[in-house]
Every structure is written in C-alpha cells, then in structure tokens.
Amino acid sequence: LDWSSDKLFGQALQSDTITTLMETVTKILSIAAGGALGSVARYLLQGWVQRRADHLHGRAEVFPWGTLAVNVLGCLLIGYLVGVIELRGRMAPETRTFVLVGLLGGFTTFSSLGLESFALVRAGGTVLAFANLAGTCVAGFAAVALGFWLSRAL
Predict the structure, then answer these.
(1) What distance, in Å, lies between the first and last C-alpha atoms of the chain?
(2) CB–CB of 105/75 below 8 Å?
(3) How confident is the model at residue 97, as a pLDDT?
(4) Which listed site, 23, 55, 112, 152, has its alpha carbon 20 to 30 Å from 10?
(5) How far apart (Å, rounded) are the C-alpha atoms in residues 5 and 44?
(6) Which pTM does this prediction carry?
(7) Could you tell me which residues are beta bridge partners of residue 7?
(8) Angstrom distance (rounded) from CA 99 to CA 15
(9) Beta strand segments in the chain, E
(10) pLDDT above 60 for 85
(11) Which residues, 6+ apart, have CB-to-CB distance to 64 below 8 Å?
C-alpha cells in the first residue's frame, strides 16, 4: 500500500483523511498493546491471589478471590487515574487511551462498569447507576447460563 499516493482503495483522499486514518490506526495499536499487557497482568495477579487464598486455607478455595481482587484493584486504579486527570490534567490523550482503555480494559472491564456507574451517580442518576450495576451482573450471569445451555442444545 502506497501511503504517499493520492488514491487509496480507488478514492481520492485528502491529506487530512490520511492523517485521521493514521491517528486511528495508532490509537487502535496503542489500545491493543495496553490490552495485551493488562490481560497478562490480570492473569498473573488473579492466579497469585487465588494461590495465596488456597494456601492460607490449606485447600483449593471455591470463592474466586483472585477475580475479586483484580476487579476491585482495577476499579481503584481507574477511579484514581480519572480523579488525577480531572484535577491536574496531567495525562496526554494518547497515554490516557493506552492506560484507561487498553491497559485497564485488558486488566478488567469491571473497572469501566464501576467508572460509568460512578459517573451516573455524579450526574444525579443514582437509580440509573444501580440499575446499570445490577442489570450488568444479572444479565451477565443470565447470558453465561444461556450460553452454557446453548452449548449443550446445539
């Protein structure tokens, strides 16, 4: 693909269109890199916490302590970082995308649920926030059960 050409996929492109395309691709790659790191961090931390819980109790724990730890830590981190950004504005947009969407998104999407629900409370939508929390948990559980049932039925 010749990026210097004025034609791409048979359409004439303005230089600002190519710039926008390159910025989008860069953003997507940044999110992917952050997501990869966040996913590995989740895997390692979740496993470590679960093994510690198993060791402390002298048996394999049924309760998912590792998942709980990752979800709560992800919520703490996203809350802290958004608070710092609001107060000080000290994070470049590219870094914000890498960290908040990529790294923490790969670490736990639960942090996004917590942040979005907190934003609803701050905007006066407390009922909507709790509906979002309950709805996501209940619907998520129901979707897992349905998916499992479908795997057996098909």
Answers:
(1) 43
(2) no
(3) 92
(4) 23
(5) 45
(6) 0.74
(7) 12
(8) 29
(9) 7-8, 11-12
(10) yes
(11) 50
